[in-house]
Amino acid sequence: MSGALAPILLVLCPTDDPVRVTVVVVLATDADAKVDPKLVDLARQVQKRDDKLTGFVIHATEAKSVAVGGSHTFALVEKQELKVTVARAKDADGRVSLTIKPPGLENVTYGCVCDKFFPVVTPHRTKDGKVLIVAVMAKPCTAGKKKD
Looking at the DSSP assignment, which residues form a beta bridge with residue 27? Predict the structure, then answer.
């Protein structure tokens, strides 16, 4: 009977495939109005809460594969760090649960959809007064992945 249950258990168990986590480090300012074309939508959303921020540039981007249950700490700017933990594998709705610890904020746990960034405006200001924003995406997608 255990042989008959094995295929069912394999279908019900979540995958332990690593999740590709991408972090984009954005610096925002009120000193100019230059907006990186890739950040137009992000700038529009941030400006709904803080219309004084008019300039947005990408400072850095890093991607890392993180195992389910594992963590990775991303270097941001001026020795600031963002810890990302993959809390849960992709669920039936296609969401991966992440817990992030942005600089100056408490842990944030959320479910994210493939190819969608979750932006967080942090309270950190750089030495030259720029606002640190982090945008996090998890990509659990395995579409096109060959199975042996």
Answer: 57, 132
Residue-wise DSSP of 80-119? -EEEEEEEE---TTSEEEEEEE-TTS--EEEEEETT--EE
- Over pLDDT 70: what percentage of the chain? 83
- Angle (CA) 4-9-14 rounded to 5° is 160
pTM of the prediction? 0.82
Q: Give the Cα separation of 90 and 73 in Å (integer).
A: 21
Domain spans of the chain, in order of start: 15-139
Sheet holding 55-66, edge to edge: 55-66, 19-29, 131-139, 118-125
**Which DSSP letter does residue 47 get?**
H
Residue 32 CA: distances (Å) to CA of 49, 53, 57: 18, 9, 11
Rounded distance, CA 80 to CA 77, Å? Answer: 5
